Amino acid sequence: MREILANRNIDSLSASRRRPYRDYGERVGRDERVGRDERVGRDERVGRLRRQEPVRWFDPQSIRPRSALVTQLVLLLSSASLVACGDDSSSTTSLALEFRASDGVNPVTCEEGFDVAGEGTGSFNVGVSDIRFYVSNLRAFDSSGTELSLELDENEFQYSGPSGWVGLIDLTSNSAGDCSPEAIAFAEGTGRTNTEITGIAGGEVDRITFDVGVPQAVMRETIADFTAEGAPSPLNEMHWSWASAHRHFVFNFTVETQGGETGDGYVHVGSRDCGGDGARALTDREACGLLYTPSVDLTGYDPAQVIDVNLARLLEGLDFVAPVYDPTTFEIIGEGPGVECHSAPATQPHCNLLFGALGVDPSGGLSDADLNEVFSLQ
Length: 378
Prior knowledge:
By secondary structure, this protein is α+β, with helices and mostly antiparallel strands. 24% of the residues lie in helices and 30% in strands. Strand 10 (239-241) and strand 11 form a beta hairpin.
């Protein structure tokens, strides 16, 4: 009887222990459960249940959607904060780049000359007759270095065509002082003046860069499509000839030595090796072989400042001795006080120093704005 009851108790215990295991499989057989030491009882089963919890409650498949949702929410909040912080690309600034000529300290005009330290201990007085130059490839940047959009005006001094934009700065007239036609042998100044480049910038300007000259594509298009007389303003002036393309920078002036001798100076910077058919340049090529286009890079721009053209620095160190030409035949008739550079450094020694001050390589024709000591913000 006792054996029967004992067996019943064992069966009853086995049955009671078997039911919980159904929740997580038939891993442990009946005989093993019956013979197992009582120490492996409730604690082990509880431990197993705990070990099963990560599978039941923290399945990675159930976490991923929540993670994706959080990521999307962060992205949406980030986008909203960027808009809220005011990334306002629609703001614009009126742009007016004012230019002037100076001796490095004071402005110079047709009536006000200046002294220049020449080669050695010599000093020369210079009287301005004509200062004109083209501005192109103008770019503007804000204080973070981001390039700003530019909408440049179009008028008689600022031209925009299919191949690009160019503006003309003319700091002298032809009616007073050394700017009058009688002041130098080969006067070519105009009656009109223009001291600024105008337009709209897409933000606050901190840095500006530009080239001093006519872009090659604009020059090629203009020469191909127009006559020298019929070219659109301001491209109807300052060319060598239609067979030799445009000059980029013209500075004509009077020279007087300490002893009272007088002469003329001509600094004409323009592209060379422009090919052509004999009547028009650039008919057989996209660009001239020697660009000679000075580059300018100015940081810390403020609308109250001017872009200064330091003529004293341009002429500094020259010997101020140049050929004298017959005004009618253009033949050399002697030598006297003066400066001569028509962008031919191989035969006109003054070009080497002049190009160096402008940051232009005389042999290769390329420019480095970091070496340009003539243009600055003042």
